[in-house]
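Re: [ENG-882] Designed sequences occasionally contain unexpected residues at chain ends

Forwarding the minimal case from QA. Structure tokens:
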């Protein structure tokens, strides 16, 4: 899963890595990003990608979304100027709309903890490896605490102290790192 697909850099990388037998699910709610994402998928003949036009959070429904000054800075916000669909991974999984993932990349500008909460059941059952970019000290701490409670081991991608990094690799089980 590529949660916060933006214009598709990680989506295209994942598409190549999983090959013809794999499938990539990319979640992106912002219309201008979706335009470029689809264009990049077409230009690269990425036929193993399913685009889900939604923000991933801890609620299903409509949410306010702030487009930000640049597409990569867009985020869920009560002060947002557009409305987008919001989904939980748990509901999508329970309704068989998505399979259990092997890997999840999450980079959603401060809503990372909400996305994890909305995927608690899925994470507890499937234990995918998670690449997580956190935005803000509180969100970072909440995400780390949440993943540790689920039994994940955490490592800073940049090899810095876990409290000083913002990119985390979470692997199950905890003793695996």
């Amino acid at each position: 899963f590529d949660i916060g697909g933006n214009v598709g850099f990680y989506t295209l990388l994942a598409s190549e890595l999983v090959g013809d037998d794999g499938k990539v699910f990319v979640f992106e709610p912002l219309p201008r990003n979706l335009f470029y994402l689809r264009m990049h998928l077409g230009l690269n003949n990425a036929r193993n990608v399913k685009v889900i036009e939604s923000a991933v959070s801890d609620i299903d429904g409509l949410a306010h979304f702030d487009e930000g000054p640049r597409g990569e800075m867009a985020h869920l916000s009560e002060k947002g100027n557009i409305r987008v669909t919001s989904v939980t991974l748990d509901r999508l999984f329970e309704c068989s709309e998505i399979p259990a993932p092997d890997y999840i990349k999450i980079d959603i500008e401060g809503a990372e903890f909400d996305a994890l909460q909305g995927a608690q059941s899925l994470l507890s059952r499937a234990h995918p490896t998670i690449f997580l970019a956190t935005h803000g000290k509180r969100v970072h701490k909440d995400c780390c605490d949440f993943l540790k409670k689920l039994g994940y081991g955490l490592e800073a991608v940049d090899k810095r102290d876990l409290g000083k990094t913002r990119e985390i690799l979470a692997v199950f089980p905890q003793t695996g790192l």
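QA comment: On inspection the terminal residues look reasonable. The chain has a mean pLDDT of 93. Proposing we downgrade this to a documentation issue.
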